[in-house]
Design goal:
By secondary structure, the protein is of the alpha/beta class. Helices cover 52% and strands 16% of the residues. The strands form two sheets. The chain has an eight-stranded mixed β-sheet. Strands 8-9 form a two-stranded antiparallel ribbon. Strand 8 (141-143) and strand 9 form a beta hairpin. The longest helix is centred in the middle third of the chain and has 19 residues, at 177-195. The protein starts with a strand and ends with a helix.
Length: 425
């Protein structure tokens, strides 16, 4: 007999998103509960077609809202969602069987889902783990006013785990830039108020990580790294185990900041090594290791890390961003030794994300550096025909300058290329 599942959703003015959220869980849910906290749009009307709808006054506290929503649930397992989230098909196809396999465990269980954030053009722009699912009957509830998380009445025996198929889409990043920026700035103010006048208080480790996330999303990277490091230092003082999911999430964020924004590859390696010793088969860690080694001049070692990471990944929608990044890295850093090998990896990355301007730039620039003008023109024509032409003005001009120098091309061809560039910018 399959376990009964209650899906709990809190919402306010989410008529653009909530129906897709509900439809994503219909195949596995026994009941869907929506707690509306003051909608003035069609959220209640839409939700009522599928769910039990309760109304509540918003008290500026996410935990209170989620806990009230949970109080109406009757299922064996509770899934907590926001309106702009959807379970992936892989998750819904496997979840019931997975929960049934946990029937023999008589302890509180909290399951973490891998959140895949999507942008306006449906690219995956970020991923992280978050607690979404728990078994009822152990006093499990949310705490914290903002960036809430689950605790139980028996933390010592609580099992916290994840699985590769436990994934969820977060499409909140498709909102307008102004909506997002205002939301993030509001969160920054709230979190700083919660940290208050005692920044060294050990319990603030949690808020500092989320403060770092908000700074990251608003591209304030110096402040983001500072917040992550403060979270890390407080967790060290507390004595967090390195296997702890929250601890690992902070280390991962520090690594990303050091690599991609501070470009401090040596310091990043110190944090990567700490986690790599625990999980040497992690494709993500292998990617970071290879990335740093390449930029520190250890190209052979970097390529080996990246090839190993690629061999560990199944090709699917979730892994596509990491696979494309690995192909770019292998292509860029092997092309100096083996041109055909390197350019083929860049083209693999382009096939995964044909509209990615950075990948297009890499392909064309390496063709041009090699004086491989014929293939540069073929590739140029290909992306032009597919209406994927580069919008970057400087790159467009650079391509044209290289192509115009080739005396064996007819003036008619040059004019055709010039017109394409003019219409693309």
């Amino acid at each position: 007999m399959n376990p009964k599942i209650s899906v709990c959703i809190i919402a306010k003015n989410e008529d653009k998103y909530i129906e897709d959220c509900i439809k994503s869980v219909l195949p596995i849910s026994n009941e869907i509960i929506v707690l509306d906290t003051g909608s003035t749009d069609k959220t209640i009307e839409i939700s009522s077609k599928y769910a039990k709808v309760y109304q509540s006054v918003w008290k500026d506290d996410f935990s209170k809202a989620r806990n009230e929503c949970i109080s109406y649930a009757k299922g064996d397992w509770i899934i907590n969602l926001s309106a702009d989230e959807r379970l992936t098909k892989e998750c819904t196809n496997n979840l019931l069987k997975y929960l049934k396999s946990l029937d023999h465990i008589h302890s509180p269980i909290i399951l973490y889902l891998k959140v895949l954030e999507q942008s306006n053009d449906n690219r995956f722009i970020n991923s992280y783990l978050k607690d979404y699912i728990f078994n009822k009957g152990y006093g499990t509830k949310y705490i914290r006013q903002i960036h809430e998380y689950l605790v139980t009445n028996d933390e010592a025996n609580t099992i916290r785990q994840t699985n590769t198929f436990l994934t969820i889409f977060h499409i909140g990043e498709t909102r307008s830039q102004k909506e997002l920026y205002d939301k993030k700035e509001n969160y920054i103010k709230k979190i700083n108020n919660l940290i208050g006048a005692n920044p060294d208080k050990l319990d603030n480790y949690y808020y500092y990580r989320h403060l770092g996330d908000e700074y990251f999303e608003t591209e304030q990277h110096d402040k983001s790294l500072e917040a992550y490091l403060l979270s890390y230092k407080l967790m060290i003082k507390i004595g967090f185990e390195k296997e702890n999911i929250f601890y690992q999430s902070v280390v991962s964020r520090i690594v990303k900041e050091l690599i991609f924004f501070q470009k401090d590859y040596q310091q990043a390696l110190n944090y990567i090594s700490e986690q790599f010793n625990l999980n040497p088969e992690s494709p993500e860690l292998l990617f970071y290791l290879g990335f740093c080694k390449n930029r520190l001049g250890e190209n052979n070692l970097g390529l080996n890390f990246h090839k190993k990471a690629l061999s560990l990944l199944d090709y699917n929608e979730i892994n596509k961003p990491l696979i494309a990044n690995l192909c770019v890295e292998i292509g860029r850093f092997s092309i100096i030794y083996d041109y055909e090998y390197g350019i083929n990896y860049l083209l693999k990355a382009h096939n995964i994300f044909p509209e990615s301007e950075p990948i297009i730039e890499h392909v064309i620039k390496y063709y041009l550096l090699r004086d491989d003008f014929l293939n540069a023109l073929k590739f140029y024509n290909l992306i032009s025909e597919n209406n994927n032409f580069i919008s970057n003005y400087n790159l467009s001009c650079e391509i044209f300058r290289y192509l115009e120098k080739q005396s064996h091309w007819e003036e008619q061809e040059i004019s055709s290329i010039r017109n394409k560039i003019k219409t693309s910018i």
